[in-house]
Amino acid sequence: MNGLITADGLPGQTSTANTTNGSGGGSGGLILISSPSLTGTGLITSSGGDAGFGENLGVTGGAGSGGRIVINTQTDISTTEINVAASGGKNNCEGFGAAGTRFYNNTDTLVIDAQAASTGSAITPISSDHVSNIIVQNYALAAPAQSGVINCS
Fold first, then answer.
1. What is the pTM assigned to this prediction?
2. Measuring CA to CA, which residue among 54, 13, 1, 5 is closest to residue 29?
């Protein structure tokens, strides 16, 4: 790989009339990469779109959540120059959409990374109990999708 693979959500619309609010940003999509090996340089993103600003007392729409990235390869992606991101979008009230997820099958690891410089991320629901490692980092928040427990072996 050399370049960019993206499924980012679009930003929300900014309102121009003072009777409407800004619209919400779109969520990131799904990227599935299956290859025996993965080399090169580049960026893979499925991030949420930023919220649109509203002229009605500055009311914004919600920020889009990050999407899902699944990488099925025998390559340890951390040894490449390929960066992977699935963060939530930002709204004008210092909040963020929920972080997306990145799953690496070679290490059976699910990563939830808000890539945020501050708090304010929405919660990312987790519904799988078939993952050995879950990493939640950079102000991301995660919780079981329904009342229950996430089991990691």
1. 0.85
2. 5
